[in-house]
Amino acid sequence: KAGVTQTPRYLIKTRGQQVTLSCSPISGHRSVSWYQQTPGQGLQFLFEYFSETQRNKGNFPGRFSGRQFSNSRSEMNVSTLELGDSALYLCASSPGLTGSYEQYFGPGTRLTVT
Amino acid sequence: GQNIDQPTEMTATEGAIVQINCTYQTSGFNGLFWYQQHAGEAPTFLSYNVLDGLEEKGRFSSFLSRSKGYSYLLLKELQMKDSASYLCAVDTGGFKTIFGAGTRLFVKA
């Protein structure tokens, strides 16, 4: 069974631009969560999607948004990029029927904002 | 508020035992996860505790006390490959998992 895939793996953007990151979950998994990981802060929860619906979100500004498609693939978008948005963005999938499942993480997208 | 605390770094010797502690204060609690993350790699699942007590899985064991808001991960017979970050995470319910900042473990020969 293929793992979680994320594209692109690396991205360099300029302040003020926007970016879209993609995540394909493990086949059969319907829940996708997104996290931002920075040194010292650890993984910060961005949002979680299940069957195209956002079920929860973290404390990030509205510049961070996401969506999920009918095939469970998910995208997150960051608009008006700031230097502080430089981070590793991880997505994780799980079966998702309840929240109490281990999550399987993708390799992440390393975003650098200059 | 949501708060998960774990030590920033620990160092231990190959073959020894190390205990990584985690304390948490969250608005909800369904269970507690431990993940391992090697540098430059994605986190991988180690354990999930729902009930109080110790759960053993090979060289790794995880303990939970819900009344004390406390957990620990115990690693026995340390190997060099155990050098990694160990992430404590709380399933707060509502399909939201909150992670601690992680403990970087260095295993020396």
Write the layout of secondary structure elements.
The complex is a heterodimer of chains A (114) and B (109).
Chain A: E1 5-7, E2 10-13, E3 19-24, E4 31-38, E5 42-50, E6 53-57, E7 64-68, E8 74-78, E9 87-94, E10 104-105, E11 109-113
Parallel strand pairs in A: 2-11
Antiparallel strand pairs in A: 1-3, 3-8, 4-5, 4-9, 5-6, 7-8, 9-10, 9-11
Chain B: E1 3-5, E2 9-13, E3 18-25, E4 31-37, E5 44-49, E6 53-57, E7 60-65, E8 70-75, E9 84-91, E10 97-99, E11 103-108
Parallel strand pairs in B: 2-11
Antiparallel strand pairs in B: 1-3, 3-8, 4-5, 4-9, 6-7, 7-8, 9-10, 9-11
Q: In words, what does this structure look like?
A:
The complex is a heterodimer of chains A (114) and B (109). With 114 residues, chain A is an all-beta fold. Helix content of chain A is 0%, strand content 53%. Chain A has no helices and eleven strands. Chain A has strands spanning 5-7, 10-13, 19-24, 31-38, 42-50, 53-57, 64-68, 74-78, 87-94, 104-105, 109-113. In chain A, the strands form two sheets. In chain A, strands 2, 4, 5, 6, 9, 10 and 11 form a seven-stranded mixed beta sheet that branches. In chain A, strands 1-3-8-7 form a four-stranded antiparallel beta sheet, with no helix packed on it. In chain A, strand 4 and strand 5 form a beta hairpin. The relative contact order of chain A is 0.33. The mean pLDDT of chain A is 93. In chain B, 0% of the residues lie in helices and 58% in strands. Chain B has strands at 3-5, 9-13, 18-25, 31-37, 44-49, 53-57, 60-65, 70-75, 84-91, 97-99, 103-108. Classes of the chains: A mainly beta (114), B mainly beta (109). Chain A binds chain B through residues 4, 31, 33, 35, 40-45, 48, 50, 55-56, 58, 90, 96, 99-100, 102-108, and chain B through 30-31, 33, 41-45, 48, 50, 87, 89, 91, 93-102.
